[in-house]
Amino acid sequence: MDGSMRIAVIEDERRLAENLASSLRETAGFAVDVAHDGEEGLYLVTTFSYDALVLDLMLPKLSGADLLVRMRASGLRTPVLVLTAKDEVESILNLLDKGADDYLCKPFDLREVRARLQALIRRSQGHDTPLLVVADLELDSSRAQVRRSGHLINLTPMEFRVLEYLMHRAGKVVSKSELLEHLYDVNWEKFSNVLEVYVSGLRRKLDLPHRKKLIHTLRGHGYMLCDRATS
């Protein structure tokens, strides 16, 4: 699974949007925000940080194609999976020219949406395979397994999501608010007190048995996962 990722679903068919959001939350552990028209969708993607978007083309107020053009013109490089009822080659080429990263024609399988999103996210973050490696720590998102020095480590689902996000950004400082925003939806503030509990659990399971510590706290800044000492 690719937990710890935050997705926006912009789709005006409410039942389809909710089915998509529920499926992505339950089967992949994504945090999902939903918009039902193009204006609301544009507000979401320009206000919050997402790892990928699911975008329908036929939207009220602002079309999916126009939203895509405005988004790319503003410099946002977030991967976009477009949902379209059109399967003509010319329409698809036009879509890709406007900045879409991938597309699916309706009707589609919800599992296919998940698989496409996971591939887009890995590619956008420089990971073409589901295996993330930092020093002797390995995380396999396709099997939801974590190993250190070859030993399998049992993590809770939330610990896995926190670790995966930190590993995707290995060597970079991740603030508490950034981490919480990607773990939860727009109401992340109410969960802020539990983050230390998850990080503490990760330290106990991953770092305590080893001399080399991988999870570092930079006071006032956030967390960093790396295989070197931090000042």
Q: Could you describe the 3D structure shown?
A:
The protein is of the alpha/beta class and 231 residues long. It has two domains: 6-124, Rossmann fold; 131-225, Winged helix-like DNA-binding domain superfamily/Winged helix DNA-binding domain (Arc Repressor Mutant, subunit A, Orthogonal Bundle), CATH 1.10.10. 40% of the residues lie in helices and 20% in strands. It has eight helices and eleven strands. It has helices spanning 14-28, 38-47, 64-73, 89-98, 110-124, 157-168, 176-183, 195-207; strands spanning 6-10, 31-35, 52-56, 80-84, 102-105, 131-134, 137-140, 145-148, 151-153, 215-218, 222-225. The strands form three sheets. The chain has a five-stranded parallel beta sheet, sandwiched between helices. The chain has a four-stranded antiparallel beta sheet with strand order 6-7-8-9, with helices on one face. β10 and β11 form a beta hairpin. α1 crosses α5 (110-124) and α6 packs across α8 (195-207). The radius of gyration is 19 Å and the shape is elongated. It starts with 5 loop residues before the first strand and ends in a 6-residue tail after the last strand. The mean pLDDT is 85.
How much strand content do the residues show?
15-25%
Largest sheet: 5 strands, parallel
Series of secondary-structure elements, N-terminal to C-terminal: EHEHEHEHEHEEEEHHHEE
Q: Number of helical runs?
A: 8
- Could you tell me the number of beta strands? 11
What would you call the structural class?
alpha/beta
Please state how the strands of the largest beta sheet are arranged side by side: 2-1-3-4-5
Going by CATH, the homologous superfamily of the largest domain would be: Response regulator
* CATH architecture descriptor name of the largest domain: 3-Layer(aba) Sandwich
Domain count: the total is 2
Mean pLDDT: 85
The Rg value, from CA coordinates, equals 19 Å
Assigned CATH class of the largest domain: Alpha Beta
State the share of residues found in helices, binned by percent.
40-55%
